[in-house]
Design a protein that fits this description.
Length: 296
Amino acid sequence: GEFGNHGLVTSTGSIDISITERDKTLTLAQGRIAILAGDGDIDIVADDVDFASGNDKVQAVGEFRLRSQSSDYNYRLGSAAQSSSGFDYTANIPDGDLSFGMRDLSALRDGFSRIRIGHTDENHKVVMRIGDIEDKSVFDYSFHAKLTDDASLVADTVYVVGDVQSSQDLDITARLLRVERQNIHDAVGSPDAGISAQTLDLVIEEQVLQQGWLKAVDRVDVQVTNTSIGADVDNFVTIAGQPNSLTMDMGSLITTSAAGGTITINASQSLRLSGLVKTLERESRIVVIAGTHLNM
């Protein structure tokens, strides 16, 4: 479906857009998708989205919620949804991914109560790859993609493959989380992947493998709730054949920057912390809880 000219604007209420046909794209070619007053939500269900009409063209005070129509679709966010030169991957050729790139993120006007992207499905392990989400110029493109509203991301398996930035609260819910060291568009360059936010909450069921950074101003909270003991689990790493909830590789970092900051790592099984866990200001606190072994 395509919105041109004025787009879709309502003075109050909510906006609910659903494209029921598989492999179809919602395109905002011109105009806005906006709720001008009240606290209504914008809900979009489509297998791909292309907000091409410019920055700040999607507006509401309530929540912005986005998920694919097809339950077996995966997600690419930020620069993971575009080429190294900034060209958006969204096209008429279906590829099994909902691509929500930096241009699409730039279209979200500041002021949503929360941004929610993703879904899980009992029959498909939904994968979400998150690249750069930041204010950045890439060749001929100038993006304002940094998250300025609270945001929640959900999938089965999440890969952080770029510089993810938020000025507000960010939470990720998944079964597996891997924070890479290298950027998806610079595999041999300097380390350039991780998450920065005001507060960062990670609720992970199975395992976290951290090679990049997790930074917050006030709080980093990492919960690994139910690491499996069985041998048939598709985890990223095992430690001497034992179940492992979180591994921090050498060079990785978890930190807070404000006075009174807190870092909490709570794992159901073992922890291997080869990186740096550090608070930068006074009256801060670090709490580390391992269900079994703690290796530092």
